[in-house]
Amino acid sequence: MAEPKKLFIKTYGCQMNVYDSERMAEAMGGAGYVETQTPDDADMILLNTCHIREKAAEKVYSELGRFRELKDAKPDLKIGVAGCVAQAEGEEIMRRQPLVDLVVGPQSYHRLPQMEAKVRDGAKALDTDFPLDDKFDTLRKRAKAKRGPTAFLTVQEGCDKFCAFCVVPYTRGAEVSRPADRIIEEARELVDRGVREITLLGQNVNAYHGAGPDGDMTLAGLIWELDKIDGLARIRFTTSHPNDMADDLIEAHGTCAKLMPYLHLPVQSGSDKILKRMNRSHTAESYLRLIERIREARPDILMSGDFIVGFPEETEEDFQATMDLIEEVNYGYAYSFKYSTRPGTPAAERPQVDEEVKSDRLQRLQALITRQQRAAQEAMVGRSVNVLFEKPGRLPGQMVGKSDYLHAVHVTDASIQPGDILPVKIIDSGTNSLSGEVLRRAAE
Ligand code: 5AD
Ligand code: SF4
């Protein structure tokens, strides 16, 4: 039998790319490839890219440049660019970096094996279509091998919101939801392979409205269907838009025991003037009232958010409004970014904020968020939380897992297996993780 060819995939950006990279590896498995963890012995390298900020896109080109030596040493090596940079820049990538043999947009991964055959014959291959068929349908023949206790599952792609700063509606296209039965089947398969926690993914996941047996299903409807799967212990979802936080979803946070008490709900800014210019269609006040309702349903929920500082025309006063909102919400986690001009988006045309001002605001905002994150983590000391253990830690006998609130937790106990969910008494809070001891073993 011929030696299998080796595929190295490097993934940038969001969790949806992580999921897509797994699907690409499976598709290429059908074309005789096995994955390798290093580009050095690869026959094909795929960069699964992110276009959300300028730096992310530029990283791709500098990474590609580094493959020149590898390609000189091994002329048969094929190099491909996938993901959102591929979608946004298409053929331009091959012009700018002639090392690239293949460019594939996020909606065309099921066509990778045919594209690979084409590049093996010495041609270049480009596919950035938005086909009507569901790529995941074609990619469904998943390997049945056992896998780790947590998994991502994409249920929705694309976005119709057109926030004025964001490239996603252009790179990922319009909102499309996968039919509920396919998702449920995929979730069952994952559970059969050892998965205990599933994170439902979508650029606008709470706008999910996939076909169900009685018409379209909401995200809450889908969560309740997944709740019925024996062996599946935890459900999460990300990323949500405040305007799609429907009543049934808020209620599920209070009533569905498998739905974890953690919600990533980006607001981007606390200034109504900026929110309006961002085309967010909500105000700071409506966001705060929404969080109040969510906390009524699930008082211990840990809130997470995304913030952009230095959006065009953001004044110090606007920035202060964002700081005030953060103080009021009290986040458990948050991600913050300097506004990055994306050509083709409406905000790119507006008067820009100086780079130094952006850096200064980012620093102040991150200091506040770090304080809140630490406080949320430290508040866990003395409590008992359920931990889903995932893998061994660095010390002998140590296991690492995640609490319901998504905090990393270390426990030293040689009897714990990956996939165990155990109550842990939290004893200490470190920089990025908690440590504790198991209260009692679950029934075997
Ligand atoms: N500049 C900076 N941050 C951005 N994001 C999206 N577009 C931009 C941009 N042009 C951030 C938003 C979004 C997260 C995924 O990335 O906060 O929620
Ligand atoms: Fe981008 Fe999210 Fe706004 Fe959609 S809702 S345009 S993905 S920031």
Task: Report what the structure shows.
The chain has 444 residues and is an alpha/beta fold. The protein folds into three domains: 5-127, Rossmann fold (3-Layer(aba) Sandwich); 135-378, tm_1862 like domain (pyruvate-formate lyase- activating enzyme), CATH 3.80.30.20; 384-438, Nucleic acid-binding proteins (OB fold (Dihydrolipoamide Acetyltransferase, E2P)). Helices cover 34% and strands 23% of the residues. The chain has 15 helices and 21 strands. It has helices at 15-29, 54-66, 68-73, 83-89, 92-96, 112-120, 135-138, 168-171, 180-192, 219-227, 247-255, 272-277, 284-297, 316-329, 355-378, and strands spanning 5-11, 33-35, 44-49, 78-82, 102-104, 125-127, 150-154, 156-157, 176-177, 197-201, 211-212, 215-216, 234-238, 262-264, 302-309, 333-338, 384-392, 398-403, 408-412, 421-429, 434-438. The strands form six sheets. It has a six-stranded parallel sheet with strand order 2-1-3-4-5-6, sandwiched between helices. Strands 17-18-19-21-20 form a five-stranded mixed β-barrel. A hairpin with a 4-residue loop joins strand 20 (421-429) and strand 21. Helix 14 packs parallel to helix 15. The longest helix is centred in the last third of the chain and has 24 residues, at 355-378. The radius of gyration is 23 Å and the shape is globular. The mean pLDDT is 94. The site of 5'-deoxyadenosine has 12 residues, from strand 15. Residues 145-375 form the Radical SAM core domain. It comes from Roseovarius aestuarii.
